[in-house]
Design brief:
- The complex is a heterotrimer of chains A (146), B (130) and C (827).
- Chain A is mainly α and 146 residues long.
- Chain A has one domain.
- Chain A has five helices and two strands; from the N terminus they run ααααββα.
- Among the domains of chain C are: 200 residues, no CATH class; 29 residues; 163 residues, Four Helix Bundle (Hemerythrin (Met), subunit A) (Up-down Bundle).
- Helices cover 69% and strands 2% of the residues of chain C.
- Chain C is built from 33 helices and four strands.
- In chain C, the strands form two sheets. Chain C has a two-stranded antiparallel sheet with strand order 1-2. A two-stranded antiparallel ribbon of chain C has the order 3-4.
- In chain C, helix 4 packs antiparallel against helix 5, helix 14 runs antiparallel to helix 15 and helix 25 packs antiparallel against helix 26.
- Classes of the chains: A mainly alpha (146), B mainly alpha (130), C mainly alpha (827).
- Chains in contact: A-B, A-C, B-C.
Chain lengths: 146, 130, 827
């Protein structure tokens, strides 16, 4: 942990914003620049920043889920999106869409199985980065000492 | 501009390969990082450059009218960037772990998997077959 | 017929299950399958002997015009009956013999697969199908010979058999292909009538040599006879089945099958008679060198194979009659005698004649069955072996120009066979019990004396009543080889004739050898003869293999020095030479004529990328290098942004940041980049690196000079919104168009993450011995504790991974390190 008050305070402000931003990135990704990869990287950066400021164990507590669980969940989401398509008679990973009309908006909300897939990608990216960074931070003594 | 980026990519390749050939494993890691950028830039350039028009269909339209940046290399590179990070992390940790065991980051000493001395192939004993 | 072959393979597939269900009854249950096939072939026998061959065709690979065709004539019927009949007894026998083995299931899988392959081999009509089964027998016998795979000798014997028979198989394949080119058909049944065409073809000599190479290796003819005795390293049921009754007969079988096609020429006769006769005579006497029952039997097997080859070479009506008769005779007694040897070994713990004796009261039933077989082997009337020997002598007497020589060799070889038969079948039972056996000798169980008794009994029954087989089975087998029907009549008593006299001489010499055996063994002549002809070819083969291995090792070492920098250098240089050469000589390069529009900030960014890379190369401080890298990375991200790739720019920014953090965390614990390298190697590497860079640039230029085909991108743009409901085409490609690729990529990411995790988690790394000598590692291996807390060694199980050949032992007490250093393989 880097003992810097400024960093710690800034982190507390930045992390929620970054997480929110990552979800924003994920959701808008299908139509505008963004997506699961970018969203995942941003979210991972938030936790990495937190771990630098507060320590790995602190970051783990905030994350609640183990990075490995994220990896598994992500893979399951992605495969699940594919299987969902299979279950409806389409081919593996073929996209399915549901249009939900929203009151007050001209365009209906389009929900697709690709979103589940993209969420899976995001989880895997977050899990990958955090598993790597956390296990390195755990083991490498010196710079970061909890 | 494509030509310039092709030269840039070539230079990055040269720099990366030079570093990959160094004895010091840290230089090797740096070479890996540069190699990722070199390859991505090459793919990007090969897909031709289009200024400032991302491959995003404008709101309210079904297709893009006019020129747009080539989305195919972008999709390739996007995953490649993330994968490069994975590769880098793995290489880095490998070098680090190797260092904790062998206390060296000298590439020429990493010969354990292919030892220099000859393996004795002729180990059979002459016995009556059982 | 297809069903018969398939059922045996199916039995192989379910064998482990059967063994698991009932270890005791497994042999009996599984034996029903070959027994069923045996009964099936018996039922076909009448049809084949009266109405002629059966042919059956099933489509298999229609695209390659390759049907599964089977052909059942007298010859294949004889062999199919042997394969299934003796196979039944062997399966039962193995159940008793390997009762206590943990790997009985595995054994049955291999044995039954072999049986299926052998059955397919003798039935196959299509040459390709034949070849596939031929190779399958080589493979399965390799597994069976090496069944005791933790014994060096077994592995070596198995390898020897595989290399010899496998190489022969390749020769045979070439021969069959040439044969196809001459005849225009793959079917044996159609080739049989085309003998004249083949013999007159200019390819005849080539075909003949190649087929002979396949047959001689498989049937262990000189100079390839060494693999068969070595193959005795396999379990005894294997020896009894493969190396007496079936596999080794495959070579003789293909020669017999080819007799109408290739036979009858001077070349055929001379070669087969010379090689067969020499093998027969030599190995008959080599058998007498040994005191190991299985070795004696193995050499007498090659002796019989030589005899059969010789008879095929002679090729007269009588000779072929003798050949088919002796095939049956031999299969009956040799199967029984191997099982006898197995019983003795199993129940006493030894099969060395020096230690054996006086077993008659302990193993009476085995003795009766074995003795019957041994007397048949020795050719003593009224056993079937006597008839076999008589008809052989008859054939030798009428063999034409060489008859005296052939007869003389046969008498001498048979005399040794008489002695060997008595040594194996009589000697262990008579006299006094010699030494203390490791086990108290007692009678073998029913499953193990059934085989010898049935086969030995058949030897006696057929001897007394040869009409049981001569007009039906043997006559049609003879007709199958000669392609024309002949009367075949066997009888015990032919009156006083030259053959009988030859038999009497044989007995005289044989008994003399039996009584003088121990003195003969010690004689210098026997020793020299044995070394020169018995050991030398096998040793030469081993030497050849060793030299091959060594020279390939040397060549490999010249390129693979163990230093990966050398590999990279080779690869880079190879790229320069090959791609550069192709660019120089092949490609019609047209250089892009104009630079296109360049904006100053773009050029500046490009320059920054180049400069940062060069700075990273030049940096002698790791943090300077990291800084340079980051500048380069962010510049690339900006370039992406400028050229319409905001997705890439965002990704690159994030990754660049994370990379920076990771590098700083790890690099701070590694030594600085200071290693000095001589200027020569730096210059050399720089030249190579710049060369590859130049090639990349040239290729890029060349590619840029061609117009880009954007049809794929265009398709994705057209369909992105309409089909995939997304406006961001890059994202649509990732999650929809090429979703499966992305899935692969996230799996790769997961694996990389788990790799990092495991590498960082593992707690102790034990280096191979070899590393210890060349590294500055402390005596105590370095430990990295798990979860940031110190845990006593051995209390926590960590992950295990392989790192540069280093082995990881997560939870082993520190003291065990020195105790067990050699349970690892490093090469």
């Amino acid at each position: 942990m880097i003992r810097s008050l400024i960093l710690q305070i800034a982190t507390r402000l930045l992390v929620p914003i970054l997480l929110l931003f990552s979800i924003f990135m994920l959701l808008r990704g299908h139509n505008l620049p963004g997506g699961g990869f970018v969203g995942g990287l941003v979210a991972a950066s938030a936790f990495v920043l937190y771990s630098l400021a507060v320590g790995v164990d602190g970051a783990r507590r905030v994350l609640r889920l183990a990075p490995r669980t994220l990896l598994g969940t992500g893979l399951a989401c992605s495969v699940g999106a594919g299987i969902l398509s299979l279950a409806t008679g389409a081919s593996f990973l073929q996209s399915l869409w549901v249009k939900v009309p929203l009151p007050g908006l001209s365009d209906p909300l389009k929900l697709g199985s690709t979103l589940i897939f993209d969420i899976g990608v995001m989880f895997v990216v977050v899990g990958t980065v955090l598993l790597m960074v956390f296990s390195v931070e755990d083991r490498v003594p010196g710079l970061i000492d909890d | 501009m494509e030509l310039i980026l092709a030269v840039v990519s070539g230079t990055l390749f040269a720099a990366s390969f030079y570093l990959l050939l160094r004895r010091n494993l840290l230089r090797f890691v740096i070479g890996i990082i540069i190699l990722g950028n070199a390859v991505n830039l090459l793919i990007f350039t090969m897909g031709r450059l289009t200024r400032e028009v991302p491959p995003v269909i404008p709101y309210g339209q079904k297709v893009i009218e006019g020129a747009y940046a080539n989305p195919l290399p972008q999709a390739l590179i996007l995953t490649a960037i993330v994968i490069s990070f994975g590769l880098l992390a793995f290489t880095l940790v490998l070098v680090y772990r190797n260092y904790t065991v062998s206390r060296t980051i000298d590439a020429d000493r990493l010969t354990a998997s292919e030892p220099e001395q000859d393996v004795d192939l002729h180990t059979q004993k002459k016995r009556l077959p059982a | 017929m297809l069903l018969a072959v398939l059922s045996v393979f199916a039995a192989a597939a379910v064998a482990p299950l059967v063994v698991r269900l009932s270890r005791k009854a497994a042999g009996w249950i599984l034996a029903t399958v070959p027994l069923g096939a045996f009964v099936f072939f018996i039922r076909q026998a009448g049809h084949v002997t009266h109405d002629g061959p059966l042919r059956e065709s099933t489509p298999w690979f229609p695209a390659y015009d390759l049907p599964l065709t089977f052909y059942l004539d007298g010859l294949s019927l004889l062999f199919a009956l042997l394969v299934t009949g003796i196979g039944t007894l062997i399966v039962v026998y193995a159940g008793g013999y390997l009762k206590h083995s943990d790997e009985l299931g595995r054994f049955y899988v291999q044995l039954l697969s072999f049986m299926g392959a052998m059955l397919g081999l003798v039935l196959a009509d299509n040459a390709i199908v034949f070849f596939i089964f031929f190779e399958l027998t080589s493979l399965t016998s390799y597994l069976l010979i090496g069944f005791y795979h933790n014994e060096e000798d077994s592995r070596q014997a198995a390898r020897k058999a595989l290399v010899v028979t496998g190489a022969g198989g390749l020769a045979l394949m070439a021969g069959l292909i040439l044969l196809y080119q001459v005849t225009g058909t793959w079917e044996f049944s159609e080739m049989l009538a085309m003998g004249d065409t083949v013999v007159q073809s200019p390819l005849y000599v080539g075909i003949f040599i190649l087929v002979c190479a396949g047959a001689f290796t498989k049937s262990a003819q000189f100079p390839f006879h060494f693999w068969l005795p070595a193959a005795m390293a396999g379990p005894t049921p294997v020896s009894a089945y493969l190396h007496s009754a079936t596999m080794v007969k495959a070579g003789v079988f293909i020669l017999a099958r080819m007799h109408p096609v290739l036979g009858g020429t001077e070349l055929w006769t001379t070669t087969l008679v010379a090689f067969g006769g020499f093998t027969m005579l030599m190995t008959a006497w080599l058998a007498l060198r040994y005191t190991d029952l299985k070795q004696i039997l193995a050499y007498t097997t090659t002796m019989v194979l030589g005899l059969l080859t010789m008879l095929l070479g002679v090729g007269t009506e009588e000779a072929i009659a003798a050949m088919v008769t002796f095939t049956l005779v031999h299969a009956l007694y040799k199967g029984a005698l191997f099982m006898l040897a197995g019983n003795i070994d199993h129940e006493t713990g030894t099969r060395d004649l020096k230690e054996l004796g006086g077993l008659r009261s302990a193993m009476p039933i085995t003795m009766i069955g074995g003795l019957a077989a041994a007397l048949s082997m020795s050719g003593i009337p009224p056993f079937f072996g006597f008839i076999g020997k008589e008809i052989t002598y008859e054939a030798a007497l009428h063999a034409g120009g060489w008859s005296t020589l052939i007869l003389g060799a046969s008498v001498l070889a048979n005399a040794a066979l008489v002695a060997s038969g008595l040594l194996v079948g009589l000697k262990p039972f008579i006299g006094e019990i010699k030494g203390a056996f490791t086990r108290e000798p007692h009678e073998a169980p029913l499953s193990m004396y059934l085989g010898p008794c049935v086969l030995g009994g058949l030897g006696l029954a057929i001897g007394l009543y040869p009409a049981f087989v001569d007009h039906s089975l043997l006559q049609s087998a003879q007709a199958g080889i000669l392609q024309e029907p002949h009367e075949l009549h066997l009888a015990l008593w032919h009156g006083v004739n030259p053959a009988l006299i030859a038999s009497l001489i044989t007995f005289a010499i044989g008994f003399a050898i039996y009584y003088g055996w121990e003195r003969l063994q010690k004689s210098a002549v026997m020793g020299g003869f044995g070394r020169a002809l018995g050991d030398a070819p096998g040793d030469g083969f081993e030497r050849l293999l060793y030299e091959l291995g060594r020279s390939s090792h040397t060549i490999t070492r010249a390129f693979q020095t163990g230093q990966f920098r050398r590999y990279l250098l080779l690869i880079f240089t190879g790229t320069i030479v090959m791609v550069g050469g192709a660019l120089l000589f092949e490609a019609n390069l047209s250089w892009p004529s104009e630079l296109g529009e360049v904006r100053y900030y773009e050029a500046a960014l490009a320059g920054l990328v180049v400069l940062s890379a060069l700075a990273a190369v030049r940096a002698n401080d790791r943090f300077v290098a990291i800084l340079a890298l980051s500048i380069g990375g962010y510049s690339v991200a900006l370039l992406y942004l400028l050229f319409g790739a905001p997705d890439l720019a965002m990704t690159q920014f994030s990754v660049e940041t994370l990379t920076l953090i990771l590098l700083v965390i790890v690099l701070i614990h590694l030594p600085n980049i200071d290693g000095y390298e001589p200027i020569t190697s730096r210059v050399r590497d720089a030249v190579v690196a710049v060369g590859v860079g130049a090639i990349v640039t040239t290729v890029a230029f060349a590619a840029l000079s061609f117009p880009l085909d954007r049809s794929v991108s265009e398709f994705m743009m057209q369909n992105s919104y309409t089909e995939a409901q997304g406006s961001n085409i890059v994202n649509v490609i990732l999650v929809d168009f090429r979703g499966l690729d992305t899935m692969g990529e996230i799996i790769v990411l997961t694996m990389a993450a788990l790799g990092v995790f495991v590498l960082m988690r593992m707690r102790r790394i034990r280096l191979p011995e070899i590393l210890g000598t060349r590294l500055h590692s402390d005596d105590e291996p370095i430990r990295v504790d798990g979860d940031g807390e110190t845990v006593p060694a051995g209390a926590e199980a960590g992950g295990a991974a392989d790192q540069n050949g280093a082995e990881v032992h997560p939870d082993e007490p520190a003291g065990a390190e020195e105790a067990a250093p050699d349970d690892q393989s490093t090469s």
